């Protein structure tokens, strides 16, 4: 009998999911969710502001609870799962990474726009020096061709990353595009490959399976789909599907379902579904966390949020440029008054 | 009117752009460009334009130190540590364009007048030069409890130095938002955007004024005044739209188009640094001449 194929899951509901809650997590909620994930034997749990360490800001939304308290709380209730943190250079710095590591974070995920991997060098070096398992996280991967992604992944590999992720931040990739990207990485880089999906086009599961088939061995999921835009690949569903496919995750299927239904669902302000705004994110190729900001701007300027998102897509805005939302909305509102 | 002699240390993009701007000054006389590569475009141009071109670095300049009273350092933060000591010993005034931040942090329309006697001044970062005038514009009307700036620049205008040390940008800019801009707490974010054609530098400034101190009309007038003041030395600096005031929050949207001297127009982030450098040197020179 051949050994079963394995993938290692990272649960992102306490980081990407923070967008869906407008960064209002409390220590009690994080404790409860992290405890459940630990009991379900999820290998990694990511905890941070939605935009990574130091993301709490007027630009992205202020955290209700200091993220270091949330990291500490998650570390305290986990003896199996390892706590991971996300850091976007330009927002967070090595200083916050060190602080997270001292509190017990074991994995560092360093995220850059897919063409800007060289800004991650100092943070990847620092994470390795701190003894952390280190991930290079190439965001907005739909905006670059496979060759470009390989070139950027190689940079992260050269700085010492143990794993490099293709990240579909806009939920805009189609399954065949995921396949070509992961295959190109598999052929050209030596480290493990990961994939992070968003469900804006209802393709998170299909894309995740395409990634695994093409050679990805690290996969992100979010319990009850809790993430920016329409959320990520739903962890409890993924665990069931992979089990059916004969792929091992080591995660307890029943415990994940119970956690999703009994603990996570009640704290959601609204069920995570594919709203028209989320759908347009995927369609226009816009960073998933823009959805709620665009909705607020649309109300303020009396516009349709979809028009704002489409215009942002036309302007090739990248992750983190939330200030462009109000700017574009103000411009569209001006044009509207003239018409 | 007599002119004050200046030299540029560093013959890369920033040094070469400075060379072109200094050629237009009626109070500064560029005499010397110092590099370490005789074949660099910057030193070649310097020779063509009739300046003394030194290709043996700071040591070569110190042998003929009478060539300049003010020296721009457009090398790197690491090199500046050594240059700062050597130039101080030689009695030169230094305008540090690197992120070394060893000297006094200066944003010309905010705090230059108080520091005309300083030996070494630092220009912080491009994001700092673009946004701190506006933090100050709000703070001089209503005390700013918190200021946060987001600088978005085109990927093409971010050089290898910026990329390798992006933490220095966030840390130095945050510090200056407080120390120079006057905010009680400061935060800085930088984003690189690879879109083609390259985008102009854009900056967003969020400020929260102390509860109960919002003076909407006065703040708007102060911001408009500051826009004009910065434009006097950075012509491509402008507000993208009216500031947005919401409760105790003031949000200001800025765009910086470069003058297109040596660097392309989209790199307003580099232009605002060289323009600020020239502005500081001109004020230094006026002060030296009147003494």
From TrEMBL, chain A:
Q: What GO MF annotations does this protein's record show?
A: 4-hydroxy-2-oxovalerate aldolase activity
Catalysed reaction per UniProt? (S)-4-hydroxy-2-oxopentanoate = acetaldehyde + pyruvate; (S)-4-hydroxy-2-oxohexanoate = propanal + pyruvate
Q: Where does Mn(2+) bind?
A: 16, 196, 198
* Protein EC: 4.1.3.39
Statement: the UniProt record of this protein carries the keyword Membrane: no
Q: Where is the Pyruvate carboxyltransferase domain?
A: 7-257
Q: Broadest EC class? A: lyase
- Active site positions: 19
The record lists substrate as bound by 15-16, 169, 196, 287
Q: Site feature Transition state stabilizer: at which residues? A: 15
Q: Which PANTHER family match?
A: 2-ISOPROPYLMALATE SYNTHASE 1, CHLOROPLASTIC-RELATED, HOMOCITRATE SYNTHASE-RELATED
Member of which family?
A: Belongs to the 4-hydroxy-2-oxovalerate aldolase family.
- Name the chain's protein: 4-hydroxy-2-oxovalerate aldolase
| Source organism per UniProt | Cytobacillus stercorigallinarum
Highest classification ranks of the organism: Bacteria, Bacillati, Bacillota, Bacilli, Bacillales
Automatic annotation (TrEMBL), chain B:
The name this protein goes by in its record: Acetaldehyde dehydrogenase
Q: Which CDD domains match?
A: ALDH_C
Gene3D superfamilies linked to this entry: Dihydrodipicolinate Reductase, domain 2, NAD(P)-binding Rossmann-like Domain
Instruction: Give residues annotated as binding NAD(+).
Output: 11-14, 157-165, 269
Q: Which InterPro entries match?
A: Acetaldehyde_dehydrogenase (IPR003361), Acetylaldehyde_DH_C (IPR015426), NAD(P)-bd_dom_sf (IPR036291), Semialdehyde_DH_NAD-bd (IPR000534)
Give the keywords, sorted.
Answer: Aromatic hydrocarbons catabolism, NAD, Oxidoreductase
Active site residues of this protein: 126 (acyl-thioester intermediate)
Is the keyword Cytoplasm in the record? no
- Catalysed transformations (reactions): acetaldehyde + NAD(+) + CoA = acetyl-CoA + NADH + H(+)
Q: Which residues form the Semialdehyde dehydrogenase NAD-binding domain?
A: 5-118
Q: Which family does it belong to?
A: Belongs to the acetaldehyde dehydrogenase family.
The superkingdom listed in its UniProt entry is Bacteria
Q: What is its EC number?
A: 1.2.1.10
What Pfam families has UniProt attached to this entry?
AcetDehyd-dimer, Semialdhyde_dh
Name the source organism: Cytobacillus stercorigallinarum
Q: Is Oxidoreductase given among the entry's keywords?
A: yes
GO terms for MF:
acetaldehyde dehydrogenase (acetylating) activity
EC class, as a word, reads oxidoreductase
């Amino acid at each position: 009998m051949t050994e079963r194929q394995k993938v290692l899951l990272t649960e992102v509901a306490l980081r990407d999911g923070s967008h869906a809650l407008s960064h209002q997590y409390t220590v009690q909620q994080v404790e409860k969710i992290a405890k459940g994930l630990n009991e379900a034997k999820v290998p990694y749990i990511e905890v941070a502001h939605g935009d990574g360490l130091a993301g709490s800001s007027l630009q992205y939304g202020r955290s209700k609870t200091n993220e270091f308290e949330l990291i500490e709380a998650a570390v305290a209730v986990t003896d199996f799962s390892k706590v991971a943190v996300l850091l976007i250079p330009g927002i967070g710095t090595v200083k916050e990474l060190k602080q997270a590591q001292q509190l017990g974070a074991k994995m560092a995920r360093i995220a850059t726009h897919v063409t800007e991997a060289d800004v991650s060098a100092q943070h990847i070096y620092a994470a390795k020096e701190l003894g952390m398992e280190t991930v290079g996280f190439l965001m907005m991967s739909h905006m670059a061709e496979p060759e470009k992604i390989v070139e950027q992944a190689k940079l992260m590999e050269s700085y010492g990353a143990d794993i490099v992720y293709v990240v579909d931040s806009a939920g805009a990739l189609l399954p065949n595009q995921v396949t070509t990207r992961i295959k190109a990485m598999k052929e050209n880089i030596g480290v493990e490959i990961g994939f992070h999906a968003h469900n804006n086009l209802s393709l998170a599961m299909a894309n995740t399976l395409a990634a695994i088939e093409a050679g990805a061995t690290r996969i992100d999921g979010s319990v009850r789909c809790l993430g920016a835009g329409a959320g990520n690949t739903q962890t409890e569903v993924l665990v069931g599907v992979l089990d059916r496919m004969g792929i091992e995750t080591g995660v307890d299927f029943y415990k994940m379902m119970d956690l999703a239904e009994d603990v996570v669902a009640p704290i959601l302000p609204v069920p995570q579904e594919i709203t028209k705004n989320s759908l347009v994110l995927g369609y226009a190729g816009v960073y998933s966390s823009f959805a709620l900001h665009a909705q607020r701007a649309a109300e303020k300027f009396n516009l349709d949020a979809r028009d704002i998102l489409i215009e942002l897509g036309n302007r090739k805005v990248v992750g983190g440029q939330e200030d462009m939302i109000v700017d574009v909305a103000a411009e569209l509102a001006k044009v509207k008054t003239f018409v | 009117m007599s002119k004050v002699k200046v030299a540029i240390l560093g013959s890369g993009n920033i040094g070469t752009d400075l060379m072109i701007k200094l050629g237009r000054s009626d109070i500064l006389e560029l005499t010397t460009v110092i590099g370490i590569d005789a074949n660099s475009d910057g030193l070649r141009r310097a020779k063509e334009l009739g300046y003394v071109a030194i290709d043996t670095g700071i040591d070569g300049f110190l042998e003929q130190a009478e060539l300049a009273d003010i020296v721009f350092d457009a090398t790197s933060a690491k090199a500046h540590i050594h240059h700062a000591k050597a130039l101080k010993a030689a009695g030169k005034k230094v305008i540090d364009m690197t992120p070394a931040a060893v000297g006094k942090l200066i944003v010309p329309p905010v705090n230059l007048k108080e520091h005309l006697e300083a030996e070494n001044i630092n220009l912080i970062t491009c994001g700092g030069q673009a946004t701190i005038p506006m933090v100050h514009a709000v703070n001089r009307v209503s005390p700013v409890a918190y200021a946060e700036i987001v600088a978005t620049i085109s990927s093409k205008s971010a050089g290898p130095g910026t990329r390798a040390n992006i933490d220095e940008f966030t840390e130095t800019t945050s510090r200056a938002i407080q120390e120079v801009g006057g905010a009680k707490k400061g935060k800085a974010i930088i984003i690189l955007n690879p879109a083609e054609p390259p985008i102009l530098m854009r900056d967003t400034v969020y400020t929260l004024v102390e509860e109960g101190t919002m003076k909407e009309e006065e703040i708007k007038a102060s911001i408009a005044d500051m826009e004009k003041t910065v434009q006097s030395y950075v012509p491509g600096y402008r507000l993208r739209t009216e500031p947005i005031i919401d409760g105790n929050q003031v949000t200001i949207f800025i765009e910086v188009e470069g003058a297109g001297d040596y660097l392309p127009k989209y790199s307003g982030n580099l232009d605002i640094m060289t323009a600020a450098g020239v502005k500081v040197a001109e004020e230094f020179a006026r002060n030296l001449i009147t003494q």
